[in-house]
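Re: the request from the purification team.
They wanted to know what the chain is likely to look like in 3D before they choose a buffer screen. I agreed to run a prediction and write the result into the notebook, where they can find it.
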Amino acid sequence: MTAVHYEMTDHIGVFTLDRPEARNAVNAEFASDMEAALDAFEADDDAWVGIVTGTGPVFCAGADLKAIASGDAGGLATKRGGFGGFVWRERTKPIIAALNGHALAGGCEITLACDLVVASADATLGLPEVKRSLVAAAGGLFRLPQVVGKALATEMILTGDAISAERAREAGLVNVIVPADQVMDAARELAGRIVVNAPLAVQASRRVMLEAQVVDERALFGSSGAAMASLSTTEDFAEGPRAFIEKRAPEWQGR
């Protein structure tokens, strides 16, 4: 099976996350497939804009906690793309996140790594890692404050609570909200407004815009990873995923 499907038509490359039975959670196959799809997208001169969406009612629930509980967390990232083969991948072309449903934890971080966001009206976005004795190590801890501001980001990160698509739009994280059955149509319409323009000019404009927001993201990813590594030696780190798998409230020890 393939965890991420890729196809390109009319200058638009579509990446479809296809693990609906696991709420499109990221595992090793997902990360590898996403990296391969991005390779194809970036190498194709006829592919000008990308769209990332999911199969089923959830966009992406983040890391596969069963993989983490089994000690296979390292497989959730690739060397070039980071988590999900995506979050720190260097790209030249814009990508739209088409949120067919909830974007939580690593799913929210994948969204933050995209350039534009179209969301279902009933979608939510959040970083609930602290609820499982984890940290948002795939960019959320520094990208979310850059987008929505310190106050809301702090609330989301420290409580682990998600926000509605409407509140995310008001905060600047979401561009367009539509009913669930119109998400891909709206994403394609937005992509169509981009592909009518000169592709190299779009890419150059995106590059300069990102350079204007220069931060040392590699160093910040390193800090996020160090925080996760420190947590991984604690009793609570094992308890979080275990409680999720056993469908019970976690019993934190603070050690």
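For the purification team: The mean pLDDT is 91.
Please add any questions underneath this entry.
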